[in-house]
């Protein structure tokens, strides 16, 4: 099946080659571009938005078939490391260290910078657990449900999900059955059995997966939005909408944080194999 959008974007890159002789870095979306543009050498590397993970990989495939040089794609790992069955591999395709780029931001010192600006120091000190660990513990329940939906082709809908329906605002605890019911109703999959889904999720959990691969960054930011209204802050809901928090986390992320990531090391390896094409600033 022809992917017209991917073909169109691949053609745009081909046409750009006449004017730009550097590396083309393909990323999934605009928010990814905003991060990577601050990390790359803009004179040597141009960041291109593919509009989806699928598109990014398809564009890469198209250009590789043409033996196009100086092309690199970076996409979210999603659940691929847990499933160990990545369908397409290439020396020109790299994955985020964690589930997605947002998870890398949350793992980094940008998270502490963000909390100092946004959270209540008094409430954070009184909160019984580490905030980052709490987000992971709660977020895994949603992550495992997402993964189960993919494995079983349930087509559950998580977009525009109301987290307030299943999250305790005081301590961020979560009732798994209420979560499953909420997602089931939101997806209009009324025939699904909550108890059966919970049992299958519990089977998945037995393997003690890396939660940084299980959790979706957007889910953790939704949890953080709720937490900042009561548990660790006193913000109004309109002040902590997810788009606002995602932008603030991006702005808190410094180039120096990227130096310690595995992705940074992989990009350096790619550069060494693909000279004269470069991606990164000499000092990010």
From TrEMBL:
The residues covered by the DUF4435 domain are 24-231
What Pfam families does the annotation carry? DUF4435
Highest taxon, organism lineage: Bacteria
What is this protein's name? DUF4435 domain-containing protein
Lineage of the species this protein comes from: Bacteria, Bacillati, Cyanobacteriota, Cyanophyceae, Oscillatoriophycideae
């Amino acid at each position: 099946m022809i992917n017209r959008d991917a073909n169109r974007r691949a053609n745009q890159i081909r046409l750009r080659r006449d004017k730009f002789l550097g590396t083309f870095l393909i990323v999934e979306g605009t928010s990814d571009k905003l991060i990577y543009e601050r990390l790359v050498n803009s004179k040597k590397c141009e960041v291109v938005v593919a509009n989806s993970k699928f598109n990014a990989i398809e564009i890469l495939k198209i250009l590789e078939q043409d033996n196009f040089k100086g092309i690199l794609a970076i996409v979210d790992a999603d659940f691929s490391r847990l499933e160990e069955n990545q369908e397409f591999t290439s020396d020109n395709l790299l994955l985020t260290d964690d589930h997605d780029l947002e998870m890398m931001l949350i793992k980094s010192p940008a998270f502490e910078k963000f909390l100092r600006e946004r959270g209540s120091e008094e409430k954070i000190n009184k909160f019984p657990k580490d905030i980052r660990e709490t987000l992971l513990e709660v977020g895994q329940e949603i992550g495992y449900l997402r993964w189960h939906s993919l494995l079983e082709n349930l087509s559950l809908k998580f977009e525009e999900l109301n987290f307030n329906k299943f999250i305790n605002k005081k301590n961020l605890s979560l009732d798994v059955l209420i979560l499953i019911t909420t997602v089931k109703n939101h997806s209009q999959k009324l025939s699904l059995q909550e108890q059966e889904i919970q049992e299958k999720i519990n089977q998945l959990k037995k393997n003690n997966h890396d939660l940084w691969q299980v959790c979706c960054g957007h889910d953790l930011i939704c949890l953080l939005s709720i937490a900042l209204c009561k548990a660790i802050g006193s913000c109004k809901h309109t002040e902590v909408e997810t788009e606002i928090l995602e932008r603030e986390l991006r702005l808190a992320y410094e180039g120096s944080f990227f130096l310690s990531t595995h992705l940074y090391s992989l990009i350096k390896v790619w550069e060494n194999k693909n000279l004269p094409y470069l991606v990164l600033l000499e000092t990010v």
